[in-house]
Amino acid sequence: xxxxxxxxxxxxxxxxxxxxxxxxxxxxxxxxxxxxxxxxxxxxxxxxxxxxxxxxxxxxxxxxxxxxxxxxxxxxxxxxxxxxxxxxxxxxxxxxxxxxxxxxxxxxxxxxxxxxxxxxxxxxxxxxxxxxxxxxxxxxxxxxxxxxxxxxxxxxxxxxxxxxxxxxxxxxxxxxxxxxxxxxxxxxxxxxxxxxxxxxxxxxxxxxxxxxxxxxxxxxxxxxxxxxxxxxxxxxxxxxxxxxxxxxxxxxxxxxxxxxxxxxxxxxxxxxxxxxxxxxxxxxxxxxxxxxxxxxxxxxxxxxxxxxxxx
Length: 311
Description:
Layout (H helix, E strand, L loop, with lengths): L5 H5 L7 H15 L9 H15 L2 H9 L22 E2 L10 H20 L7 E7 L1 H6 L1 E12 L5 E12 L8 E4 L15 E7 L5 E4 L2 E8 L1 H6 L1 E5 L6 E5 L8 E4 L12 E7 L7 H14 L10
Parallel strand pairs: 2-6, 8-12
Antiparallel strand pairs: 1-2, 3-4, 5-6, 7-8, 9-10, 11-12
């Protein structure tokens, strides 16, 4: 996917005011309108200009776009950083079905459709806002009350966009999954005139944890074992998002085996399961004693790990 430099498309500096952006868009839209221009590439340029304006005209989208910095170049291969939009409140929307690039759809497409529908139905009501928030996996096991910080765009008297931090206290219900939303009524954008404010929708995502992987309601954790634990069986402490549990390792366990702990995944009806994925870690052979132990084991076991090579 190619990076789109929307400022370059409109021919403005990154410090341009909202009025500067509007003027640049109007000038280019007139120049490349397919009904006016004879340029064979006019239709494509008209779409590019419209897409750039769709982002830069909205303070929230513009501030989020600016968050990625000015280090990317137009046409450069691009993938958005993980959770680049976490903690950022979006509002407003574009017409569903607008012919925008994959770059736009990846960053803003879902929110654009969500925001646009409410705006058309309730012209006097404030726009809904949407933000992604990161929670710890343990929060969904027990439920929690957390303070979150959102970055909300503001426009100064000169029409320049900046962000302002807004702190909210939220209740995280037990069993919530990644991708689900919390609705905070009346916490969206202010209404026009006497209209009520919109709502704030928080999309839940789990903060990265090197120990755990989540698939729907199931949780996976890699469990390293010493060779003798895998061969002879053992009882080991297994970390889970809800605290350590004692796990019995069956004798002659192989690397890759999954031990299922029923109902120990994300709570729900039914709850998910937790899977301990066994890995085997070899002790280093750095000392003469360790090397001798390995030679003795090789002599005693006479084990061939590659019998299938001989078939």
